[in-house]
TrEMBL record:
<dbReference type="InterPro" id="IPR012000">
    <property type="entry name" value="Thiamin_PyroP_enz_cen_dom"/>
</dbReference>
<comment type="similarity">
    <text>Belongs to the TPP enzyme family.</text>
</comment>
<dbReference type="InterPro" id="IPR029035">
    <property type="entry name" value="DHS-like_NAD/FAD-binding_dom"/>
</dbReference>
<dbReference type="GO" id="GO:0009097">
    <property type="term" value="P:isoleucine biosynthetic process"/>
</dbReference>
<feature type="domain" description="Thiamine pyrophosphate enzyme N-terminal TPP-binding">
    <location>
        <begin position="6"/>
        <end position="115"/>
    </location>
</feature>
<dbReference type="InterPro" id="IPR029061">
    <property type="entry name" value="THDP-binding"/>
</dbReference>
<dbReference type="GO" id="GO:0003984">
    <property type="term" value="F:acetolactate synthase activity"/>
</dbReference>
<feature type="domain" description="Thiamine pyrophosphate enzyme central">
    <location>
        <begin position="196"/>
        <end position="322"/>
    </location>
</feature>
<dbReference type="InterPro" id="IPR045229">
    <property type="entry name" value="TPP_enz"/>
</dbReference>
<keyword id="KW-0786">Thiamine pyrophosphate</keyword>
<feature type="domain" description="Thiamine pyrophosphate enzyme TPP-binding">
    <location>
        <begin position="389"/>
        <end position="538"/>
    </location>
</feature>
<dbReference type="GO" id="GO:0030976">
    <property type="term" value="F:thiamine pyrophosphate binding"/>
</dbReference>
<protein>
    <submittedName>
        <fullName>Acetolactate synthase</fullName>
    </submittedName>
</protein>
<dbReference type="GO" id="GO:0050660">
    <property type="term" value="F:flavin adenine dinucleotide binding"/>
</dbReference>
<dbReference type="Pfam" id="PF02775">
    <property type="entry name" value="TPP_enzyme_C"/>
</dbReference>
<dbReference type="InterPro" id="IPR011766">
    <property type="entry name" value="TPP_enzyme_TPP-bd"/>
</dbReference>
<dbReference type="Pfam" id="PF00205">
    <property type="entry name" value="TPP_enzyme_M"/>
</dbReference>
Amino acid sequence: MSETISGGHLVAKALKAEGVEVIYTLCGGHIIDIYDGCVDEGIEVIDVRHEQVAAHAADGYARITGKPGCAVVTAGPGTTDAVTGVANAFRAESPMLLIGGQGALSQHKMGSLQDLPHVDMMAPITKFAATVPGTERVADIVSMAFRECYHGAPGPSFLEIPRDVLDAKVPLEKARIPEAGRYRASTRQAGDPEAIERLADLLAHAEKPAILLGSQVWTCRATDAATDFVRSLNVPAYMNGSGRGTLAPGDPHHFQLSRRYAFTEADLIIIVGTPFDFRMGYGKRLSPTATVVQIDLDYRTVGKNRDIDLGIVGDAGLILSAAAQAASGRIGDAAAKRKAWLEELRTVETQAYEKRLPRQHSDARPIDPYRLVHEINEFLTEDTIYIGDGGDIVTFSGQVVQPKSPGHWMDPGPLGTLGVGTAFAMAAKQARRDKEVLCLFGDGAFSLTGWDFETMVRFDLPFIGVIGNNSSMNQIRYGQAAKYGEDRARVGNTLGDIRYGEFAKLLGGHGEEVRDPSEIRPALERARESGKPSLINVWVDPDVYAPGTMNQTMYK
């Protein structure tokens, strides 16, 4: 008799071929054969308390490792619970596969348990969404879904697999099982050579260039190329999203607080791996007289919302390396002449830093949020992965916290999803146990998915969680007060005074309550030394808002 294999085991073989080492899941009767296959293939199964967390963790795993993440959820509400995580990965260009269960094909349209049109719902927020029609095609279509994750800019895929397709067994020789390394080609595009030559000429003649290194610099693992580019051509660099950490704080080409000034005064602005979305004022925050170059993995992003002078589609690392090499032979002494430009920006940078410094050292009670994020920034090491999950408090941190190494900054991305923190911490620590993980939460953000703190305890995934607790959804509260007056400022946005440090202890972790700013650093140290998942609940001033919140820049 010929050897047979089930659909669930074919899923596991396909995941193994892709290099997936862990799946994030919440159990359901539709999907248990996948678990059985994962056990045989040596793939770890981390079961969470909410499917949104499973999807966010798969997204986070992809960002940390550079390999696609995978979440497996049951049909119906299991899949709909994961929609937010998939949508977040879609906007953040993160490659992950969500596998959802489905009722048996033999019960199609009969009203089976948890039956919903999953593919129709997922199609707008994925790069690929499909039903697996038969057991012999399971591994083939899983591999196809992974391949589609990397078409252009990365993103998520979705597959639903009916229960009878997963449970059925077929002769092994009839199942198509793509071989590892032989069903996906390199996606690294070097860019149009003529466009790179034009960029080299622009760089050779620019007097005041500036570059923004966005998330795709990390997606492409292009940090070395970006560093060589800015140093060899003497170009000041700004970073956002996952591009933060490309240059270490203190690097002479690392700038943060002078970006608006630079983008107003520069004669050449190079935008790498960042769309002209709300974070960039839809391109309106760039000088109308500057020459603007945009480099992106996705052709559809280049020139969207704002006219550009030059667009180059491809891998950030290959393009920056080629442009630096092409410019090096024609730049002459132009790079040296940019010393005055860098000094001008450094003066603006220093003034902005010194203006804010008293707030960062404030001894006020309740605690000034600037003091909290300052203490966190001082606490980070080169091996600390920093995660931001919140509204107003994370807006503060974006101005102050500077990761010390590439790939050590995580935030939701442009969807602005609250609740990613616990899942990202879970994925980051599981994938990189050699790293310290610190997550700053807003109290509202933590409340959304905080029960999975227990998952961190259960799987022994220590991390340092810090909650900036103002008992409010403060970013929204400020907008309501500004628009409708103080008497209506607290409608629908005020939370209870929750002692989250006690919550952490309840679930088996380390927890503390901090009300005095002098206690922040000692509490951080104790959390680090505890070796447990930790929550430091820091009571911050509810009547102090981040500048970005007060300017409502997210809506402009």
